[in-house]
Amino acid sequence: MSIRPRVPADFPAIARLLGAVGLPAAGLDRTEGRVCELDGQVVGHVAIETTPDAAVIRSLVVAAERRGQGLGAQLLEAAEALAGPRILVLKTDSIGPWVQRLGYQAVTLAEVPASVLATTQFEGSLCSGYPVFMRVPGAVMDPAVIKSAVRRRYGAIVAGGGGCCAPAGSGSRSSCCDSSLAAGYGPEDLAAAPDGANLGLGCGNPVALASLKPGEVVLDLGSGAGFDAFLAARRVGAGGRVIGVDMTPEMLARARELAARHGYANVEFRQGDIERLPVEDASVDAIISNCVINLSTDKARVFRESFRVLKPGGRLMVSDLVLLKPLPAAMRGNLDAYAACLAGALLKDDYLGAIRAAGFQQLEVVGESRYEFGDPTPEQVATARKLDAAITPADLEAASEAVASVKISALKPVPARAAGRVQVFDPAMCCATGVCGPSVDPELVRFSADLDWLRSQGVAVERCNLAQQPMAFAQDPEVRAALEAQGETALPLIKVAGQVKSLGSYPLRAQLAAWAGVAGPAASLYTEAVRELVALGAAVASNCEPCFKFHYGKARRLGVSREDMLSAVRTAQAVKETPAKAVLGLAERYLDPAPREGRLRATGSRRLAAKPARTCCAG
Question: Domains in the chain and their CATH numbers?
Answer without folding.
Answer: 2-137 (3.40.630.30), 162-411 (3.40.50.150), 418-516 (3.40.30.10), 526-619 (1.20.1290)
